[in-house]
Design brief:
180 residues, mainly alpha, elongated
C-alpha cells in the first residue's frame, strides 16, 4: 500500500475514533498529513470509500491480533481478559472502537461500508465462538456468550467514556473472573 495512503487512513481512523463520521473533513486530513485536499481525493473519492478501506484494514489487523492472542493462552479467562484490555486500551487513549463509532453513525454509510462493518463484527463473533468452544465453558451457550460479550464491550466503551470511570469494564472483568 502506498505510504501516503496508509498515513491518510491512519489519520482518518484516529479522527473517526475521536469525533465520529462527521468529526473531520478531507481538508482536515490533508492538513494533518501535510498534503493538498485533492491528494486525499486522489486516494479516496469520498468518505465511504475511505471508511471501507479503514474497516478492511482494521479487520485484518484485529484478526492478526486475535490469532496471536489465541496462541498465547489456553485459558478462556485469560483470553477474555486480554480482549477486555484491547477495548479498554482504546478508551484509555481517548478514542472509541472504530466499528462501534461507525455503527453509531450508520445512517451516513453506504451499503458497501455497512457490509464490511457487519463482516468485521461477524469475524470477531466467529473468533470468539471458536475460542469459547475450544477453551470451554458449559455455563452459557457459546453463541450467546459471544454476542453478549461483544455487545458488553461496545456498551462499556460508551458508558465508561461518558462517566470518565471504568465501572462497566470492571463489571465485565468481574463476570469473566467468575466463569469456570
Amino acid at each position: 500500500m502506498n505510504l501516503k495512503k496508509k498515513e491518510i487512513m491512519q489519520t482518518a481512523c484516529y479522527a473517526l475514533q475521536k469525533g465520529g463520521v462527521n468529526g473531520f473533513s478531507f481538508r482536515d486530513l490533508a492538513e494533518s498529513v501535510g498534503i493538498k485536499s485533492s491528494s486525499v481525493h486522489y486516494h479516496f473519492r469520498n468518505k465511504n470509500e475511505l471508511f471501507k478501506a479503514i474497516i478492511i484494514d482494521f479487520r485484518e489487523s484485529l484478526s492478526e491480533r486475535l490469532v496471536k492472542l489465541s496462541e498465547e493462552s489456553d485459558s478462556l479467562q485469560e483470553v477474555l481478559l486480554a480482549l477486555i484490555d484491547i477495548f479498554e486500551g482504546v478508551l484509555d487513549e481517548g478514542k472509541f472502537c472504530v466499528c462501534g463509532m461507525l455503527a453509531a453513525d450508520m445512517m451516513h454509510l453506504d451499503k458497501e461500508v455497512t457490509e464490511e462493518l457487519k463482516a468485521t463484527f461477524r469475524a470477531l463473533e466467529n473468533w470468539l465462538q471458536d475460542t469459547i468452544e475450544r477453551l470451554g465453558t458449559k455455563d452459557i451457550p457459546i453463541d450467546s456468550l459471544a454476542l453478549i460479550f461483544i455487545s458488553s464491550l461496545e456498551g462499556a466503551m460508551l458508558v465508561d467514556r461518558i462517566s470518565g470511570e471504568k465501572n462497566y469494564f470492571s463489571a465485565i472483568r468481574a463476570m469473566v473472573k467468575s466463569l469456570t
